[in-house]
Design a protein that fits this description.
It contains 8 helices and 9 strands. A 7-stranded parallel β-sheet has the order 3-2-1-4-5-6-9, with helices on both faces. The termini are far apart.
Length: 248
């Protein structure tokens, strides 16, 4: 804790969801540690949060594409946060990933390898302390491989499985792990896509769900909740039929 105030780390704080999560956590009374590839770009966001909430905010560099997955970030944190939220993600382009191994690797490293290394290292430190909450933003795309985005989906599937295993391993340690699975979210990453409004959340909606999940120590949440039912149905479709469904 920071003078009696709990501290929350947001990794990927320059993304639309990351910024919304940072604001929601600050409004909930947390001191913030904001991490992104380019800390200088966070300064405006930092000033805004300080003006709105009067809370403490520090800025840190973290790039999950670094060789260590961004783990060196942890040595810059004082104090060690009570809550850590990993919002890092890259949708990429499926057609490009099929043709370009470097593009595919970037998607996989951004969505799975880097976040897993970072969350795993945070988990070790939280476990040694005996407390903390880890939140990983995954995706409904990881619930089943689809032809339209299977490189991204496979990386998110790996991250979802990693978080699940981490949660079960830490179940008696005082450390809780939350998996957040948004469906469509209206962000810069999805700009230009024709998204159905009834299935599409705003970043602030995701952020509110994250804060609620932290408070209630939830395990897995879908944003919006209808996605839980949708993905249950999609997972139930036999593979021999699923491969012929054009939207898949």
């Amino acid at each position: 804790m920071n003078g009696g105030v709990e501290t929350a780390l947001v990794i990927g704080a320059m993304s639309d969801i990351g910024r919304a999560v940072a604001h929601a956590l600050a409004e909930d009374g947390y001191a913030l540690q904001l991490a992104a590839r380019d800390p200088a770009r966070l300064e405006r966001e930092t000033r805004d949060i300080r003006v709105r909430t009067g809370g403490a905010v520090t800025v840190h560099r973290c790039d999950v594409l670094d060789e260590d997955g961004g783990v060196s970030l942890l040595d810059t944190l004082d104090p060690l946060p009570d809550v850590a939220v990993c919002v890092v993600g890259l949708l990429g382009d499926q057609a490009e990933s099929q043709q370009n191994p470097d593009a595919a690797e970037r998607v996989i490293r951004t969505n799975y390898i880097g976040p897993a290394l970072l969350m795993g290292s945070l988990a070790e430190r939280f476990e040694q302390r005996g407390s903390g909450v880890l939140v990983g933003i995954s995706s409904v795309a990881g619930d089943r491989g689809r032809a339209a985005n299977y490189v991204y989906g496979s990386a998110k599937a790996g991250f979802t499985a990693f978080l699940s295993g981490l949660r079960n391993r830490l179940a008696t340690s005082g450390v809780h792990v939350v998996t957040v699975k948004p469906g469509f979210v209206r962000t810069r990453m999805t700009d230009g896509m024709d998204l159905p409004s009834w299935l599409t959340a705003e970043p602030e909606e995701v952020a509110a769900a994250v804060v609620k999940a932290i408070r209630r120590r939830r395990d897995v949440i879908y944003v919006r909740g209808i996605w839980r039912l949708i993905m249950l149905i999609i997972r139930a479709v036999p593979e021999r039929m699923f491969k012929w469904i054009k939207w898949a």
